[in-house]
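Bench notes, afternoon.
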Amino acid sequence: MAELNLVQAINLALAQEMEADERVVVLGEDVGLNGGVFRVTEGLQEKFGADRVADTPLAESGIMGSAIGLAMAGMRPVPEIQFEGFMGPAYDQLVNHAARYRTRTRGAITIPMTVRVPVGGGIHAPELHSDSPEAIYAHHPGLKVVMPSTPHDAKGLLISAIRDPDPVVYFEPKRVYRSFKEEVPEEEYTIPIGEAKVISEGDDITVVTWGAPVFQCLDAMDNLPEDLSVELIDLRTIFPIDIDTIAQSVEKTGRCVIVHEAPRTCGMGAELSALIQERCFLHLEAPVQRVTGFDTVMPYYKLELDYLPESPRIQKGILECTSY
């Protein structure tokens, strides 16, 4: 197996799905000639042609609307929105049209579309380039939302998303794009949407996270007392939520810390906390802790790492929960 980073794994998944299914097309700003702002689609236009890897105008609403039309016509479009902050102009098309067509047409029309979006902070980007809006899109019925943290998961989840009959928002944590490599099978494989992954098993406390903070959690765990046993869960799919895996873990450990980059208020941590309270109340030995971004606009790079849930804050949250 080849060792790939996240960018390479996503590129491989796109190439293999385009080879296997001529209905799969890629569109977005600079995805063709330049290979995308992060070079995720590099080489695809050369291989598949400009009709299947199309550079578009700088018009996110137009990109999303065009992709919806392609999906309605039987294609499987993969539009790219360059940064998560640019999703705003495409919001109407995504949540008022793509997410609702199955219900609106009583199942006669579905929208098999995968919206690729770089997400999150940690790369010293300017405003509108470092947010984590996953909770916004998880709130809308009709959308599935995923966020892989590793190259292996990125490939399997992207293939599942492209083959899904409904719209999937596929968030790519840009802080992880080239941070490390791991073995990724050459052959095609899928990872089910809606299935979390237990990264490490433990008995004393459950830590739930997704995207780039997975690695800050692992770093925090390395600095905990040796006798503290932590079970780390990578949610992978933001919606639908794999609450069964989380509940099974919390019932065992009795304690839980949730870590995410997005602001605290109305973030996915709040929903997970409510679900854990509903499912695991009699097993809890401490209140569920949240270690998150702050309820402010993401600051510029000098304060960026103070905003993000880095290892020291995660470690503090775990120790406070275990000592309650």
